[in-house]
Amino acid sequence: MHATLPLLGESFPAIRRTRLETLQVNLGYRCNQACLHCHVNAGPTRKEQMADETIGQVIAFMDASGVASLDLTGGAPELNPGFRRLVQAGRARGVHVMDRCNLTVLELPEHADLPEFLAQHEVEIVASLPCYLEKNVDSQRGEGVFAASVRVLKRLNALGYGQPDGALRLNLVYNPLGPSLPPPQGALEADYRRELGSRYGIVFTRLLALANMPIQRFGSTLVSRGGFTKYMRLLKAAHRDENLAGVMCRSLISVDWRGYVYDCDFNQMLDLPLGAGSRTRTHVSELRAGDLPAQPIRVADHCYGCTAGQGSGCGGAVT
Predict the structure, then answer these.
(1) For labelling alongside 32, which of 50, 83, 245, 248 has CA 20 to 30 A away?
(2) What strand order describes the sheet that includes 170-174?
């Protein structure tokens, strides 16, 4: 695995935080898949997993901070035994809960009842599906992944997910197959609706188009193929200042499996602690949400992945 942090410059514009709205929690790096575009380098052999004590500290921070949204991610967050505890804790507090799901994890025998659990607690599902064509998905995520994803999507639709005017939100996530920017999100969403609807009868709430970040597995692949510098030039050339107002790190913090806090999930993967210039990690048990507004955000040139073109973040295109 090639380290990409030493290859990143620091020309990205300085930005500061606004009010904290979203608590993003990485429950561990273990996943039942090993996708080529994964910025976490997640996979079946990863052992990192958030402990029960740390989950309790995350719940305590939810109480103290009054965050509006709890964003659960991984790896496959559902593989952590504490996943359901966090979902229930968030919903009991009136917090909106999102599950960043790879879909195929819901076919594992030990999670057979998880779709019903998610529906019962009105958890928003943000599901990775990088294309509506089987060949493209399987080339990026592994053989048989597309067929399994279609089966799970149909099951979620049957539970009420993604239905027009329904309360159960089912968002799909698109990533380019290679070192290119996503096409316009609106037009691509129309293509997804037409193809998934006509071919499989699948409906969904929204499509989120995300750029691939030049870090971890995807970044290492770029380095191996001699394309890292070219991709960074593409991101920088497509930067738009107006996207700075909508980047996710301004209203979000990311908590890793140990409980340490970062400005975003990408900084977590680069081990860049919370706050511009900070060299020491802050634990969620030590963090006070009231200290965050107006604080500078730790940036480097990978951040151009969030401001290039239409922009890119946890909620899809910024503009």
Answers:
(1) 248
(2) 206-209, 170-174, 124-128, 96-101, 69-73, 22-26, 252-255, 260-262, 282-283
